[in-house]
Amino acid sequence: MLEPVRDGNWIFGYGSLVWRPAFRYVERRPGQIRGYARRFWQASTDHRGTPEAPGRVLTLVEAEGELCGGMGYRVDDAVMADVLTDLDHREKNGYQRVSTSLYFDRESRETAVALVYIAGPTNPHYTGPEPVEDIAAIAARARGPSGENREYVLELARALERYGYRDEHVEAVARVITNRG
Protein backbone atom coordinates (compact mmCIF):
# COMPACT_ATOMS: atom_id res chain seq x y z
CA MET A 1 0.00 0.00 0.00
CA LEU A 2 1.33 3.43 -0.95
CA GLU A 3 1.64 6.24 1.55
CA PRO A 4 -0.75 9.18 1.16
CA VAL A 5 0.03 11.59 -1.63
CA ARG A 6 2.05 14.57 -0.44
CA ASP A 7 0.47 18.00 -0.50
CA GLY A 8 1.74 20.54 -2.96
CA ASN A 9 2.45 21.19 -6.59
CA TRP A 10 5.22 18.90 -7.84
CA ILE A 11 7.17 19.07 -11.07
CA PHE A 12 9.43 16.22 -12.15
CA GLY A 13 12.61 16.96 -14.06
CA TYR A 14 14.53 14.29 -15.97
CA GLY A 15 16.74 16.44 -18.22
CA SER A 16 18.13 19.92 -17.67
CA LEU A 17 15.65 20.46 -14.83
CA VAL A 18 17.73 17.99 -12.81
CA TRP A 19 20.74 20.33 -12.78
CA ARG A 20 19.29 23.70 -13.85
CA PRO A 21 15.68 24.22 -12.77
CA ALA A 22 15.71 28.07 -13.10
CA PHE A 23 12.44 28.49 -11.21
CA ARG A 24 11.48 29.07 -7.58
CA TYR A 25 10.63 26.00 -5.53
CA VAL A 26 10.14 25.31 -1.83
CA GLU A 27 11.41 21.74 -1.80
CA ARG A 28 13.69 19.67 -4.02
CA ARG A 29 13.97 15.89 -3.72
CA PRO A 30 15.40 13.10 -5.83
CA GLY A 31 12.68 10.83 -7.13
CA GLN A 32 11.68 8.57 -9.94
CA ILE A 33 8.78 7.82 -12.20
CA ARG A 34 7.83 4.40 -13.47
CA GLY A 35 7.16 3.13 -16.96
CA TYR A 36 9.35 5.62 -18.83
CA ALA A 37 12.86 5.70 -20.27
CA ARG A 38 14.90 8.79 -21.11
CA ARG A 39 15.96 9.15 -24.77
CA PHE A 40 17.72 11.83 -26.84
CA TRP A 41 14.99 11.55 -29.46
CA GLN A 42 13.93 15.20 -29.60
CA ALA A 43 15.50 17.80 -31.88
CA SER A 44 16.20 21.15 -30.23
CA THR A 45 15.83 24.12 -32.54
CA ASP A 46 15.21 26.61 -29.73
CA HIS A 47 17.63 25.92 -26.84
CA ARG A 48 20.51 23.54 -27.63
CA GLY A 49 20.46 23.99 -31.38
CA THR A 50 19.01 26.17 -34.11
CA PRO A 51 16.50 25.53 -36.92
CA GLU A 52 19.47 25.21 -39.30
CA ALA A 53 21.43 22.88 -36.99
CA PRO A 54 19.14 21.22 -34.43
CA GLY A 55 20.67 19.71 -31.31
CA ARG A 56 19.38 16.69 -29.42
CA VAL A 57 17.56 16.84 -26.09
CA LEU A 58 15.63 14.37 -24.02
CA THR A 59 12.11 13.16 -24.00
CA LEU A 60 10.53 10.19 -22.30
CA VAL A 61 9.26 7.09 -24.05
CA GLU A 62 6.98 4.53 -22.52
CA ALA A 63 8.97 1.54 -21.33
CA GLU A 64 7.28 -1.08 -19.20
CA GLY A 65 9.21 -1.95 -16.07
CA GLU A 66 11.66 0.99 -16.40
CA LEU A 67 12.40 3.56 -13.71
CA CYS A 68 13.46 7.07 -14.65
CA GLY A 69 15.34 8.89 -11.89
CA GLY A 70 15.40 12.64 -11.66
CA MET A 71 14.41 15.53 -9.44
CA GLY A 72 11.08 16.49 -7.94
CA TYR A 73 10.37 20.13 -7.16
CA ARG A 74 7.50 21.30 -4.95
CA VAL A 75 6.31 24.73 -5.97
CA ASP A 76 4.33 27.12 -3.78
CA ASP A 77 0.74 27.79 -4.86
CA ALA A 78 1.45 31.52 -5.05
CA VAL A 79 4.00 31.09 -7.87
CA MET A 80 2.81 27.89 -9.57
CA ALA A 81 1.01 29.68 -12.43
CA ASP A 82 4.12 31.75 -13.19
CA VAL A 83 6.38 28.70 -12.98
CA LEU A 84 4.15 26.78 -15.41
CA THR A 85 4.09 29.75 -17.81
CA ASP A 86 7.90 29.83 -17.76
CA LEU A 87 8.18 26.05 -18.15
CA ASP A 88 5.62 26.03 -20.98
CA HIS A 89 7.88 28.52 -22.78
CA ARG A 90 11.05 26.55 -21.95
CA GLU A 91 9.45 23.30 -23.13
CA LYS A 92 7.60 24.81 -26.13
CA ASN A 93 9.38 22.76 -28.78
CA GLY A 94 6.82 19.92 -28.86
CA TYR A 95 6.43 19.10 -25.15
CA GLN A 96 3.15 18.56 -23.34
CA ARG A 97 2.40 18.42 -19.62
CA VAL A 98 1.53 14.96 -18.28
CA SER A 99 0.57 14.00 -14.72
CA THR A 100 2.29 10.98 -13.23
CA SER A 101 3.16 9.44 -9.88
CA LEU A 102 6.49 10.54 -8.46
CA TYR A 103 8.18 8.13 -6.05
CA PHE A 104 10.65 9.52 -3.53
CA ASP A 105 13.63 7.66 -2.14
CA ARG A 106 14.13 4.23 -3.60
CA GLU A 107 13.10 2.51 -0.37
CA SER A 108 10.18 4.82 0.42
CA ARG A 109 6.58 4.26 -0.47
CA GLU A 110 5.95 7.98 -0.33
CA THR A 111 4.52 9.40 -3.54
CA ALA A 112 3.23 12.62 -5.04
CA VAL A 113 1.41 13.50 -8.21
CA ALA A 114 3.79 15.46 -10.43
CA LEU A 115 3.72 17.23 -13.75
CA VAL A 116 6.30 16.12 -16.28
CA TYR A 117 6.92 17.46 -19.78
CA ILE A 118 7.02 14.82 -22.53
CA ALA A 119 7.51 15.31 -26.26
CA GLY A 120 5.75 12.47 -28.03
CA PRO A 121 6.19 11.00 -31.48
CA THR A 122 3.48 13.18 -33.04
CA ASN A 123 5.38 16.45 -32.56
CA PRO A 124 7.42 17.74 -35.51
CA HIS A 125 10.73 17.73 -33.59
CA TYR A 126 10.59 14.08 -32.52
CA THR A 127 13.42 12.16 -34.15
CA GLY A 128 12.71 8.68 -32.86
CA PRO A 129 15.47 6.10 -32.44
CA GLU A 130 18.91 6.96 -33.79
CA PRO A 131 22.27 5.28 -33.21
CA VAL A 132 24.05 6.59 -30.11
CA GLU A 133 27.04 7.60 -32.25
CA ASP A 134 24.80 9.77 -34.46
CA ILE A 135 23.13 11.42 -31.45
CA ALA A 136 26.53 12.11 -29.88
CA ALA A 137 27.94 13.56 -33.12
CA ILE A 138 25.01 15.98 -33.36
CA ALA A 139 25.21 16.92 -29.67
CA ALA A 140 28.99 17.40 -29.85
CA ARG A 141 28.69 20.19 -32.43
CA ALA A 142 25.24 21.76 -31.84
CA ARG A 143 24.85 25.08 -30.06
CA GLY A 144 21.81 27.22 -29.40
CA PRO A 145 20.61 30.16 -27.30
CA SER A 146 20.90 28.08 -24.09
CA GLY A 147 24.46 26.98 -24.84
CA GLU A 148 26.33 24.01 -26.19
CA ASN A 149 24.41 20.78 -26.62
CA ARG A 150 27.38 18.80 -25.29
CA GLU A 151 27.07 20.74 -21.99
CA TYR A 152 23.44 19.60 -21.70
CA VAL A 153 24.47 15.95 -22.11
CA LEU A 154 27.55 16.05 -19.86
CA GLU A 155 25.94 18.09 -17.05
CA LEU A 156 23.00 15.70 -16.97
CA ALA A 157 25.29 12.66 -16.87
CA ARG A 158 27.19 14.18 -13.92
CA ALA A 159 23.98 15.11 -12.08
CA LEU A 160 22.47 11.63 -12.49
CA GLU A 161 25.68 10.07 -11.22
CA ARG A 162 25.72 12.47 -8.24
CA TYR A 163 22.20 11.35 -7.25
CA GLY A 164 22.94 7.67 -7.85
CA TYR A 165 20.76 7.21 -10.92
CA ARG A 166 22.05 5.01 -13.74
CA ASP A 167 20.88 5.70 -17.26
CA GLU A 168 22.61 3.62 -19.92
CA HIS A 169 21.38 5.81 -22.79
CA VAL A 170 22.62 9.07 -21.26
CA GLU A 171 25.89 7.44 -20.19
CA ALA A 172 26.48 6.04 -23.69
CA VAL A 173 25.92 9.40 -25.41
CA ALA A 174 28.10 11.20 -22.83
CA ARG A 175 30.88 8.60 -23.24
CA VAL A 176 30.98 9.03 -27.03
CA ILE A 177 31.06 12.85 -26.69
CA THR A 178 33.85 12.67 -24.08
CA ASN A 179 35.89 10.26 -26.17
CA ARG A 180 35.63 12.57 -29.19
CA GLY A 181 37.32 15.31 -27.12
Structure summarized in a few sentences:
This protein has a single domain (9-180), classed as Gamma-glutamyl cyclotransferase-like (Hypothetical upf0131 protein ytfp), CATH 3.10.490.
Structure description:
With 181 residues, the protein is an alpha+beta fold. It has a single domain, classed as Hypothetical upf0131 protein ytfp, CATH 3.10.490.10. The chain has 5 helices and 7 strands; from the N terminus they run βαββαββαββαα. It has a 5-stranded mixed β-barrel with strand order 1-3-2-4-5. It has a two-stranded antiparallel sheet with strand order 6-7. Strand 6 and strand 7 (147-148) form a beta hairpin. Helix 3 (132-141) crosses helix 5 and helix 4 packs across helix 5. The longest helix has 14 residues, at 77-90. The protein is globular. The chain starts with 8 loop residues before the first strand and ends with a helix.
Write the layout of secondary structure elements.
Elements: E1 9-13, H1 16-19, E2 27-44, E3 55-75, H2 77-90, E4 96-104, E5 111-118, H3 132-141, E6 143-144, E7 147-148, H4 149-162, H5 168-180
Helix pairs in contact: 3-5, 4-5
In whole angstroms, the N-to-C terminal distance is: 49 Å
Contiguous low-pLDDT stretches (5 residues minimum) are 1-5
Number of helices: 5
CATH topology: Hypothetical upf0131 protein ytfp
Q: Which percent range fits the helix content?
A: 25-40%
Q: Quick one: CATH class?
A: Alpha Beta
Tell the overall outline: globular
| Percent in strands | 35-45%
Structural class label: alpha+beta
Superfamily (CATH H level) name: Gamma-glutamyl cyclotransferase-like
Oligomer: single chain
Order of SSEs, N→C? Answer: EHEEHEEHEEHH
Number of domains: 1
Radius of gyration: 16 Å
Mean pLDDT over all positions: 92
Largest sheet: 5 strands, mixed, barrel
Number of strands: 7
Q: Architecture in CATH?
A: Roll
Looking across the biggest beta sheet, what order are the strands in? 1-3-2-4-5
